[in-house]
Specification:
Layout: E1 27-30, E2 34-39, E3 42-47, H1 60-74, E4 82-89, E5 95-103, H2 111-116, H3 122-138, H4 143-146, H5 151-164, H6 175-191, H7 193-201, E6 205-207, E7 217-220, E8 223-226, H8 234-237, E9 238-240, H9 241-254, H10 258-272, H11 278-301, H12 306-324, E10 328-333, H13 340-351, E11 354-357, H14 358-366, H15 386-409, E12 414-417, H16 423-435, E13 439-445, H17 457-460, H18 467-470, E14 485-487, H19 494-503
Parallel strand pairs: 10-12, 10-13, 11-12, 13-14
Antiparallel strand pairs: 1-2, 2-3, 3-5, 4-5, 6-9, 7-8
Helix pairs in contact: 3-10, 5-6, 5-11, 6-12, 9-10, 9-11, 11-12, 13-19, 14-15, 15-16
Length: 505
Amino acid sequence: MRVATTGSAVPVGAGQGLGAVPGLPATLTETLTSVLIFLGDRVYKIKKTADLGFLDFRTRDARLAACQAEVELNRRLAPDVYLGVADISGPDGTVFDHMVVMRRLPADRRLSALVTAGNDVTGPLRAIARLLADFHARCSTSPEITEAGSAATLRSLWDEVLRSVEPYLGPVLDTTTIDTVRHLAERYVEGREPLLRERQRDGRIRDGHGDLLADDIYCLDDGPRILDCLEFDRRLRVGDVLADVAFLAMDLERLGRADLSRFLLDQYRAYTAVTHPLSLESLYIAYRAFVMCRIACTQYAQGSAAAAAEARALASLALASLRRGRVRLVLVGGTPESGRSALAADLAEAEGWTVLRAESVARELNHLPRTDPDGARDGTHDHTHDGRRDAADDAVYSELLRRAGTAVERGESVVIDASWARRHDRQRAAALARSTATDLVQLRCAPPEPVLAGRSVAQAGPGFDLSALTGHEYTFHTDPWPEAKTLEHGPTPTDILRAARRATR
C-alpha cells in the first residue's frame, strides 16, 4: 500500500499533539457511503461501490476522485488529520481500489460524546464558532457559487429533498407533516427574495463544509478538528455560510440541546460580526434536518429498522424549526389606555421581533417633540378638519407599512403599535402580508377600565373626538374589527402578554 500525492503529505511522526494512541483495538465501522477500518493510530476509509441516487461510486475512477476530493477539502479544517490517498492492490500489484488515510483521534473527545455525557462544551463550541467564522471568510466564492444562494436554487433543493422521501410516506413518515414542511419552506422562500439577494450581494455564499455534524468534530486540547466535509456533490456543499453552521446547530438540537444550538449560533454571529434574521437560521436548520431525514430513510431501506424513528424525529425537528421561523406581521391595536404600547414592546422583546410605533413615526414625520410618555397619538391631528386629520393618519400608516415591508422581506417579524381603528388601514396591512408571504396576526387590547372614569360618553355627542378631552388619540367611531383577537387584562400584568404570545404561535 502506498500513499498517493494528494496535496502535501504529513510526515509519519507529525501530529502527536492530537491525542492519537497507538495500540488501540482494531475496529470496523460502516456509514451510508463508506467503510472505515480503525487500525492502531490510523483510520482507512473505503468508499462503497454503490449508487445511492445522490451519489454514484460504482466506478473506481469515481471512488478515486471522491477520495482525492475528501483529502483536499478536509485539509482546510484538519490539515494534520488527513494524510493522503492510498491505493489498494492485489497480490499481483494490480490496483483495484483506493482509500483515504487519516490519523485516528480519541473517540471520547468527539463533540457528540461530550454533549451526550453532559460535559460543559461552551468553551469548545466557542472555539468551533471562531474556527468556522475564519474558515467561511477564506472559503472560495464565484458568480457560479453565488447562484447557490438564490431563491430558485433553494426551491430546487427543497423540492429535491422532499421528493426523495415520497416513497417513505406512510410506512415511515407522516404525510401531513411532510405537506406542512413543504408549504412552510416554500412560503418562506417566496417572501424573502430581497433577503436572499442581499446575502448574495454581500458575499455570504461560499464553498463551505456541507456536513457539519457533532460526530465528526473532535475537541482536542490544542483546538477543534472538523472532519468529513461533503466531497461527493459540490451542489450540496456550496451555499450560504449560515446554512453551513446551521447544520451543526441542527445536530445539537437533535441531541436534545437546543440551548447549545442557540449558543453556537450566537457565538458565530459575534465572530462574523454579521447580522442576520433568526428566521433564516430556522429555515436552514429545517433544511439540514430534512437532509438527515432523507439519509435516515435510505438507511431504513437498507434494513435499519431503527432508522424509521430517527427519520420521523428529524422531520418533526424540521417542522418545528419552520414554524419557529415563520415571519409575522402583528398588529397591536386599541386605545392608548388599553396598554397596547406596553404590550407591543413586551411582545417584541419576548420574541426578538422589531417594534414600530405610530406615535414615534408621527413625531418623525411632523418633527414634533414627545409630549406623551405613554405614546398615545397615531398622528398630529387638526381636530377642526377631518380631511387634514385623515391625511396625517394616512401618512403615518403608509410609513409604518413601508418600514414593516422592508423588515418582513428581510425575514424580520414586526409588531406595529397603533390604534388600527380604520378598516382600510388594516386592509393595507393584510395586502402587505399577502404580497410578502407573511403571517398576519391581529390583536386588539381591551382597556382595563373605562377610558373616561366619571364622564358620560353619551353626553359627548355622536362622533365626538375624545382626544380633545383626554389629550390622547382615541377614535370614537372604530370600524368593526372581527378579524382581531381581543385580549383582556388578567389578574397579573403578564397574563395579557402570555395571551398575545399564544395568539402569534
